[in-house]
């Protein structure tokens, strides 16, 4: 077989049919041909595996896409779980180390009196709230007020009432704070009270009051009452915009008042009783030449006479 095996790659050329007719006849008449024929017949009995290039390439691409898509998701999920665990631990830590506050609220037509941890008393007018930290209150007598409240402060360290329009500081006294919208009004009935806002700091004594508006300028005036009149069911006003009176009527009676083209910036001085709506409406609007039309039991429309 060696005669044909190494001669110009004869076997490869013969398999491909590239030898001459003379070379083919001479090879098939030789002993080498018989030996090679047996090998060739044996190899032809093996099944050749079918390899589909297109389908295998497509399958490989799908595998790569799935693998690449899954891999970052696992990483992102791990990062998310780690972050979530960290947030939970932080929240638990905050709950443990940051004292929890208590909020007391009143709804419309409601007045509520409560005693603070230092034995100071607070009475909330309708639509008001206070927030404080019970755990720290004996050492840090501080609370936040929204709306109106009357305070009877027990003697002790400085007592601070914070509002969005200014802060009030006292040691032991009785005072009323009304902090709504942009207005702040403080009445001192006993002791001394310090009132601070962004522009001024004022100290008033019993029988005095102070108020500030949009300009933050504080105006002081005298009061005759020994306690807030609203504690006895009477809302009193001294030179305030009519809008303030309308808002108080809505809070005390749980109604809606449509002012229409009424000038709600007109000044009003007077009062109304918090138990009788018809009487309150008449007391407030008749002196100002305003008619009241009841649309229903909870809605009133104002019109000029």
Strand content: 25-35%
Shape: elongated
Largest sheet: 13 strands, mixed
What value does the Rg take, in angstroms? Answer: 47 Å
CATH topology of the largest domain: Jelly Rolls
Give me the count of strands.
Answer: 18
Order of helices and strands: HHHHHEEEEEEEEEEEEEEHEEHEE
Helix content range: 25-40%
How far apart, in Å, are the first and last alpha carbons? 131 Å
Return residue spans where pLDDT drops below 50 for at least 5 consecutive residues.
none
Structural class: alpha+beta
How many domain regions?
A: 4
What is the CATH top level name of the largest domain? Mainly Beta
Protein name: DUF4974 domain-containing protein
GO molecular function: sigma factor antagonist activity
Organism: Aquimarina algicola
Pfam families: FecR
At a glance:
GO terms for molecular function: sigma factor antagonist activity. The protein has about 300 residues and is α+β, with helices and mostly antiparallel strands. The chain has helices spanning about 1-5, 10-15, 20-30, 30-45, 55-95, 240-255, 275-285; strands at about 100-105, 110-115, 120-125, 130, 140-150, 160-165, 165-170, 175-180, 185-190, 190-195, 200-205, 210, 220, 235-240, 255-260, 265-275, 290-295, 300-305.
